[in-house]
Design goal:
Layout lengths: L2 E5 L2 E3 L5 E8 L7 E7 L6 E6 L5 E4 L7 E6 L4 E6 L8 E8 L6 E3 L3 E5 L2
Parallel strand pairs: 2-11
Antiparallel strand pairs: 1-3, 3-8, 4-5, 4-9, 5-6, 7-8, 9-10, 9-11
Length: 118
């Protein structure tokens, strides 16, 4: 059974930092592209960052470029999202997503809440 478990969310003041983690189990982690998405209340889920199987970052949405960094440790089956200089508009539930080599190999975590507020 595939599981993606996110952690690291919480309440932080504007300008602060958080590091999200997603631990995967039940899949060949190093064969999956790993993504971070987020969904704010009343908005659609959007891609935040994506990393290749080998760990090279391949995509960031424009609004987080220079502030967020995605990385992965294939030995630990874990993908991270380091978030710096957080803004209130970064407030959302953040989801980990694993995408494999067939259309049915697409898995999601349960999400972790990030709230940026003073």
């Amino acid at each position: 059974q595939v599981q993606l478990v996110e952690s690291g969310g919480g309440l932080v003041q504007p300008g602060g930092s958080l590091r999200l983690s997603c631990v995967a189990s039940g899949l060949a982690f190093n064969r999956y592209v790993m993504n971070w998405y987020r969904q704010a209340p009343g908005k659609e889920r959007e891609l935040v960052a994506a990393t290749t199987r080998a760990g090279g970052a391949i995509n960031y949405r424009d609004s987080v470029k220079g502030r967020f960094t995605i990385s992965r440790d294939n030995a630990k089956n874990t993908v991270y999202l380091q978030m710096n200089s957080l803004k209130p508009e970064d407030t959302a539930v953040y989801y980990c997503n694993a995408v494999g080599w067939t259309s049915d190999r697409n898995y999601w975590g349960q999400g972790t809440q990030v709230t940026v507020s003073s």
